[in-house]
Amino acid sequence: MLLDVSQPIHSGMPKAVTLADVRVEPCLRIKDGALLDTSELSIPSHAGTHIDAPSHAVAGGATIDRIPADRFLGPAVVSTVRRGPGELIGVSDVLDGGPAPSAGDMLFLDTGWGTKFFDASYFDHPSLDTELAQWLVDTGVKLLAMDFITPDLPHVRRKEGFNFPVHKILLGNEVLIAENLADMSTFGGRRVFAYAFPLIVRGGDAGHARIVLSDEVAA
Asked: Is residue 219 one of the residues assigned to a domain?
């Protein structure tokens, strides 16, 4: 079974308040006499389901086009975590929610926030404890994915001087970050195989991605 956990791209889709609006607009249409349907897409690099490259948070870090393709597929754990707005997700939450990730695994956090994507409550979400971020680095997890907008504190809870500590710990140690995933509860608490290939954007700080989970796990 394959489970697509990507949010479809469309005009006016939810995104961080600091980003420009997403637009998908027609250029040519068969119904208007054109030979082919053609559209124009305008989307910020961090709207919708996407993968952050190290350069997003680290000066001189690798851009999305410089990351080998084998970083974007492999064994993964989907950990079911239920934390409320503003609450921190810790190591124990991850271990209680599914199998322990191993070196080379991806970790997917199933918090239920993916179902809130079109609701105002989506923007006040749980976030990662910095201790968990460092634990992921030490464990050797190669990608962290979540069904909310950022692993750091939500925008509404940040104080002056906020500096994205979780992003810096993870991306500073080349642990990639996938954000804004859709509902993954079907595979909650399980080992899976993940495909998370981003668009190759030259010099890009992120790449939009179609992320798919499979319950066929290699032995």
From this structure: no
Whether residue 58 is contained in a domain is answered as yes
Record the pTM.
0.95
Q: What is the mean pLDDT of residues 94-100?
A: 98
Q: Are 79 and 88 in contact (CB under 8 A)?
A: no
Residue 218 — pLDDT band, cuts 50, 70, 90? low
Q: Average pLDDT of the chain? A: 96
- How confident is the model over 127-142, as pLDDT tens digits? 999 999 999 999 999 9
Q: Does residue 64 contact residue 187 with C-beta atoms inside 8 Å? A: no
Task: Note down the domain range covering 113.
Answer: 2-214
Please report, in angstroms and rounded to a whole number, the separation of the first and last CA atoms in the chain. Answer: 16
DSSP secondary structure, 137-197, as one string = HHHT--EEEESSS-SS--GGGPPTT---HHHHHHHHTT-EEEES----GGGTTEEEEEEEE
3-class DSSP assignment, residue 92: helix
Q: What is the CATH number of the domain that holds 52?
A: 3.50.30.50
Return d(Cα 26, Cα 162) in angstroms, integer. 39
Confirm whether 133 is domain-assigned.
Answer: yes
Domain count, the chain: 1
In a domain, 156, yes or no: yes
DSSP-based helix, strand, coil % in the chain, nearest 5: 25, 25, 50
